[in-house]
Design brief:
With 308 residues, this protein is an alpha+beta fold. It is built from 7 helices and 19 strands. β9 and β10 form a beta hairpin. The structure holds flavin-adenine dinucleotide (FAD). Flavin-adenine dinucleotide binds next to β3, α4, β9, β13 and β15.
């Protein structure tokens, strides 16, 4: 049962921000690619124009809130998320092309941005076409694949800091490195991103996107829910290979399983809980450490009640 304070706040938010969708006790398993997660007390699919006034409002209420994108790198607690989950998705996903630049709101999906860029004959974002996240999530994570990283194509990122300063930051300012950004240490919300691409051959760009898609279908367990690579790549190793060499291909806890197809992925075979996934991650880390003396650190972001 939602407490009275949250009930009142949800009603106020609904009345004040009709362009955003405000839901209460919303199961997060419907908003994560892992298909795992208990209810968010309040879940808001934010309209772009509501981002700053909603955050401003929440700051005054003292209610905790978490900004997410497409939930493709999240493991959410079975006990759900305290306070408000602010999702930047379709309602904050406008994309514009200006010569060789792409100006997009944080909720735009990477696949859509890559396709719009391809259609405009702009090259440089093909590497990201198969990453199932938003631009905001990609900046936060410095998402990368196939030899590219989002930091390579960032011209400028609009970030709101918790004290409500709007800042325009570069990739250097954001200290983007392998699956790391300054936003992991200093709170800030990405609202818009300008990407700098190059003119290219439309047919070649589309062919490269298709090639990457086929490679993903061939190598990754895309027919099961997951959050992509569970662990980061330890320096000098590949997490998937270490896990495989430790004999853990197919290792399961409940419905959570080290993918048989790609040991770097943990998949949800049906009704896996966050608890199952965490137990599995701990077991895998312990066994890999026992065998190779290397610790694995999570790439997935773990959020929610009673999970830290
Ligand atoms: C099948 C599959 C394949 C994948 N392949 C890759 C891959 O090749 N390379 C790769 O790097 N990743 C990959 N991922 C992981 C994931 O898609 C990326 O990390 C992606 O960038 C996450 O974006 P998101 O919008 O889903 O963010 P979410 O998962 O919603 O959030 C991730 C983190 O970013 C923060 N965040 C999200 N939006 C914002 C914002 N606007 N402002 C501030 N913080 C924000 C959240 O608080 C959270 O901490 C894969 C995932 C899956 C399921």
């Amino acid at each position: 049962m939602l407490n009275e304070k949250y009930e009142i706040i949800a009603n106020e938010l609904k009345a004040t921000f009709p362009n955003s969708t405000v839901l209460t006790e919303e199961p997060m398993k419907g908003h994560t690619t892992f298909r795992i997660g208990g209810p968010a007390d309040i879940y808001i699919d934010l309209d772009f124009d509501d981002i700053t006034p909603v955050i401003d409002y929440l700051k005054k209420t003292d209610i905790p809130f978490t900004v997410i994108g497409n939930g493709s790198n999240l493991l959410v607690s079975d006990d759900g998320v305290e306070g408000v989950v602010l999702a930047l998705g379709k309602k904050a996903g406008k994309i514009e092309i200006a010569d060789t630049k792409v100006v997009a709101q944080a909720g735009a999906l990477l696949s859509t941005v890559a396709n719009v860029a391809a259609e405009a004959g702009l090259t440089g974002l093909e590497f990201a076409s198969g990453i199932p996240g938003t631009l905001g999530g990609a900046v936060y994570m410095n998402a990368g694949a196939y030899g590219g990283e989002i930091k390579d194509v960032i011209e400028a990122v609009t970030v709101y800091t918790p004290d409500f300063k709007k800042k325009i930051l570069t990739a250097d300012d954001l200290q983007l490195s392998y699956r790391h950004s300054l936003l992991m240490e200093e709170e800030g919300y990405v609202t818009e991103v300008v990407l700098r691409l190059q003119k290219g051959d439309k047919a070649e760009i589309k062919a490269r996107i298709e090639e990457i898609k086929n490679q993903r279908v061939e190598k990754q367990p895309l027919n099961f829910p997951s959050a992509g690579s569970t662990f980061k790549r330890p320096t000098g190793y590949f997490a998937g290979k270490l896990i495989d060499d430790a004999g853990l291909r197919g290792y399961s806890v409940g419905d959570a399983q080290v993918s048989e197809k790609h040991c770097g992925f943990v998949i949800n075979k049906g009704n896996a809980t966050a608890h199952d996934v965490l137990q599995l991650m701990q077991d895998v880390d312990e066994k890999v450490y026992e065998k190779f003396g290397v610790h694995l650190t999570p790439e997935v972001r773990i959020i929610g009640r009673n999970i830290h």
